[in-house]
C-alpha cells in the first residue's frame, strides 16, 4: 500500500464519521449512551465473528487495552454529545489535534517539524472558527469536560495505534477491541445509568448500520495509520467537524456564517498541506507505549 492510498483511506473514514454525526444524535435521542454503545459494538463484534479464530495471544494483549481506551473515548464522547450542542462538542473534541504532536514528542522523542506545527495550528484555528465555540451562553459543565477528555483519549489512541499496527493484522486488533468495548460499555450501562433503548424503525435501522460503519472506519483507521504519521493523521481527522457541518447544511438546511466558511477552508488547507508531503517515516514501534 502507498502513502497516498493510506491517506485516502483515513480521509474516507473521516468523512463517514463526520456524516454520521447526525445519525448518532438521532439514536441518542432514543437510547442512553452506554446502552447504545453496547448494542452498537456488540453488533460490530458479531460481524467479525469469523475473525476471532485466527487471532493470536499478542493480538489480545494489545487489542484489549486499545479497546478499553477506545471505549472510554467513545463513552465520554456520547455523554458529552448528549449534554451540549453539536458545534461546541465538535470544537472541544478537536482538542486532540494539537495534543497529538505533544504525545508523539513524549512517547517517541520526535520533535514536530515546522510543517507539523503549521498544519496543526491551521486545523485548530479552523476548528475554532467553524464550530463557533463562543456561540453558546451555557457555562462550562460536565458535557464540556467529557468532550475534552474524549479528545485527549482520541489523541492517545492515534499515537498508540500508529506504534502497534505495523506488527498486527488490523482486523485481528479490531475484533479484539470490539470485545473490550462491548463488555466495558455493558458494565458501565448497568452501573452508571438506567439502560434504555427505544426499539423503533429508527434504532433498528441505525444501530446495525452504525455497527457496520464501525467495522469499516475503525478498521480503515488501523490500516491507514500503518503508513501515516500520528500528527498527519490528526490533521486529517480534523476534517470531521467540517464534514459534520456540511452534512447539516445539506440535510437540515443549517446555514454557515462567513467565519464558519473561513474555518472550514482553513481546516481543508491544513489537511491538504499535511497530506501532500510525500511518504513519511512511520512512528517507531515503542512497546513501552
Average per-residue pLDDT, rounded, comes to: 80
Tally of helical segments? 13
- Proportion of residues in helical segments: over 70%
Order of helices and strands: HHHHHHHHHHHHH
Distance between the termini: 25 Å
How many structural domains can be distinguished in the coordinates?
Answer: 1
Q: Specify Rg, calculated over alpha carbons.
A: 18 Å
Counting DSSP E segments of at least 2 residues, the number of strands comes to 0
* Model regions low in confidence, pLDDT < 50 over at least 5 residues: 277-289
Oligomer: single chain
Q: Please outline the major beta sheet.
A: none
- Sheet/helix structural class: mainly alpha
Residue share in β-strands: under 5%
Tell me, briefly, the overall form: globular
Describe the protein in words.
Helix 4 crosses helix 9 (170-192), helix 5 (86-93) crosses helix 8 (142-164) and helix 9 crosses helix 10 (201-224). The protein has one domain (3-275). The chain is globular and about 45 Å long. By secondary structure, the protein is mainly alpha-helical. The two termini are 25 Å apart. It is built from 13 helices and no strands. Residues 277-289 have low confidence and may be disordered.
Structure at a glance:
By secondary structure, the protein is mainly alpha-helical.
Amino acid at each position: 500500500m502507498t502513502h497516498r492510498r493510506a491517506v485516502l483511506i483515513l480521509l474516507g473514514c473521516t468523512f463517514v464519521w463526520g456524516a454520521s454525526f447526525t445519525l448518532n444524535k438521532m439514536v441518542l435521542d432514543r437510547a442512553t449512551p452506554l446502552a447504545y454503545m453496547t448494542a452498537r459494538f456488540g453488533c460490530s463484534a458479531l460481524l467479525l465473528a469469523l475473525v476471532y479464530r485466527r487471532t493470536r495471544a499478542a493480538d489480545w494483549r494489545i487489542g484489549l487495552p486499545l479497546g478499553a481506551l477506545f471505549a472510554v473515548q467513545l463513552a465520554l464522547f456520547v455523554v458529552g454529545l448528549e449534554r451540549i450542542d453539536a458545534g461546541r462538542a465538535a470544537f472541544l473534541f478537536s482538542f486532540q489535534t494539537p495534543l497529538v504532536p505533544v504525545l508523539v514528542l513524549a512517547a517517541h522523542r520526535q520533535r514536530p517539524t515546522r510543517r507539523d506545527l503549521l498544519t496543526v495550528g491551521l486545523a485548530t484555528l479552523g476548528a475554532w472558527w467553524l464550530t463557533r465555540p463562543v456561540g453558546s451562553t451555557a457555562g462550562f459543565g460536565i458535557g464540556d469536560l467529557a468532550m475534552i477528555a474524549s479528545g485527549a483519549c482520541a489523541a492517545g489512541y492515534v499515537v498508540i495505534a500508529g506504534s502497534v499496527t505495523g506488527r498486527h493484522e488490523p482486523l485481528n486488533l479490531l475484533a479484539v477491541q470490539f470485545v473490550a468495548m462491548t463488555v466495558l460499555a455493558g458494565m458501565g450501562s448497568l452501573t452508571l445509568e438506567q439502560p434504555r433503548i427505544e426499539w423503533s424503525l429508527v434504532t433498528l435501522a441505525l444501530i446495525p448500520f452504525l455497527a457496520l460503519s464501525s467495522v469499516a472506519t475503525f478498521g480503515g483507521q488501523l490500516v491507514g495509520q500503518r503508513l501515516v504519521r500520528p500528527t498527519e493523521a490528526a490533521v486529517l481527522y480534523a476534517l470531521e467537524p467540517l464534514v459534520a457541518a456540511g452534512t447539516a447544511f445539506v440535510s437540515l438546511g443549517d446555514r454557515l456564517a462567513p467565519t464558519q466558511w473561513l474555518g472550514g477552508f482553513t481546516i481543508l488547507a491544513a489537511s491538504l498541506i499535511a497530506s501532500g508531503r510525500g511518504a513519511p517515516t512511520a512512528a517507531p514501534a515503542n512497546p513501552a507505549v
